[in-house]
Amino acid sequence: MHDSVKCDIASHVEHDIEFDICCPSDLIPDHRPRSELKFAPLSMDRREEYSALFSLCGEKASDYSFINIWGWSEERRYEWAFDENLCWLRLTGGPQSVRWAPVGNWNRSDWAKVLDKAAAPGTVFERTPQALTDIWQEQLQGRVLVEEQRSEWEYLYDYKKLVSLSGNKMHKKKNLLTQFQKLYDYAYAPICEKRLDVIRDMQQEWCEWRGCEESPGLIAENIAIARVLDQWKNLPGILGGSLSVEGKTIAYTVAEDLGDGTVVIHFEKGLDSYKGVYQAINQMFLANTPGFDVVNREQDMGSAGIRQAKESYNPVGFLKKYKVRWLG
To answer: What is the secondary structure of 217-234 as a DSSP string?
Structure first.
């Protein structure tokens, strides 16, 4: 998958907008002075500075956590620029660079000035959280266009309900958990540095079973997981848990404490030959990691199967994100 759960603000999107259609501002030469942001590749050196800015965001989308951008940086080639008490992100791993929303305290009154300096007219900011989208729409009326990015909405759940699995809607999940507990001689353990090698081994086994080498997406995810495990002790807020049966590790979760009562699940893997393994690792990790109100299980990426699986756990809301075009 964070802050207070927001459920319905679709009214903010007035039209579906095709961003490849030229806007008048694209055709007018822009002669205003603009300071060039000095982008540099993502590094561990400024992780604390970045994390401090991330903590100030009005909504903490999992996309923007340092753990997430560090893990996926080999594929996406993140670059960042620090300016105006903000961190600006762009992804350079594709055919064209992509800008994401700035990270920092969004409660400021000078966004027109800031964007005039930091972005050319026509710049599109992907995955912009709703809280910032709302601020921009209010302050920059007529100067931004907004499009919903439904595939990037992050699913939010009630922590206590995912632990208890109570109620009719959770009956199948609880039944599978109960079957797992009856079928196997299992043990749960938190992930610590001493257990990282067994997690790596299980991930390798999972990848071989799933045929990762034939899927660019799974290859990229496997690299992201390895990058996170390799820097485990240096990553702020990182959490994890694993399940073993008769000494063999069969499931693990890598998660993060966002510091606002939300825990986000970044990676969750299980060996499907063990019935109920995913229900077990999901419930047991949370039950053994108290102190949270909300569980963020990230987005569905537009996959019908992933959407169905995430909806089956009955989300209580979404952290919505938008594509915002700055007209200048």
So the answer is: HHHHHHHHHHHHHHTGGG
> What is the DSSP secondary-structure string of 39-66?
-EE--GGGHHHHHHHHTTSSS--GGGSH
Exposed / middle / buried, residue 7 (Cβ in 10 Å: 0-12, 13-18, 19+): exposed
The two beta strands, 98-100 and 86-91, are: antiparallel
Rounded distance, CA 324 to CA 317, Å? 22
Query: At a CB cut-off of 8 Å and minimum separation 6, what does 277 contact?
Result: 180, 243, 250, 251, 270, 271
* CA 293 to each of CA 159, 161, 193, 282, 288: distance values in angstroms, whole numbers, following the listed order: 5, 10, 27, 15, 14
pLDDT at 1: 42
Helix (H) or strand (E) holding 195: none
What pLDDT is attached to residue 201?
A: 97
Q: Which residues of the chain are modeled with pLDDT < 50?
A: 1-33
pLDDT value of position 36: 80
Length of the chain measured in residues = 328
d(CA 183, CA 204): 25
pLDDT of residue 35: 54
Buried b / exposed e along 184-209 (16+ C-beta atoms within 10 A): bebebbebeeebeebbeebbeebbee
The answer to whether 319 and 296 are in contact (CB under 8 A) is yes
Q: Is 212 helix (H, G, I), strand (E, B) or coil?
A: helix
Contact 2, 154 (CB under 8 A): yes
pLDDT single digits (tens) 249-294: 999 999 999 999 999 999 999 999 999 999 999 999 999 999 999 9
d(CA 184, CA 245): 6
Catalogue all structural domains in the chain, each as residue range(s) with its CATH number.
10-153+320-326 (3.40.630.30), 155-298 (3.40.630.30)
Largest CA distance in the chain: 71
